[in-house]
Design a protein that fits this description.
2 helices, 61% helix, flat
């Protein structure tokens, strides 16, 4: 169920075309940037819902 929910949300966000401007993406990008400075690397570049 989690996978299908994530796929649905990704599809809906993609249809709107505002993935880069979403609050989720902004938060996830900030966390990735801060984590990288501490030596943590996130393999997947996209947020999961």
């Amino acid at each position: 169920m989690s996978e299908s929910r994530n796929a649905y949300i990704v599809e809906q966000v993609g249809k709107r075309g505002d993935v880069k401007d979403s609050l989720d993406e902004k938060i996830y990008s900030a966390v990735r940037k801060q984590a990288k400075s501490k030596g943590l690397i996130y393999e997947n570049g996209a947020a999961r819902y």
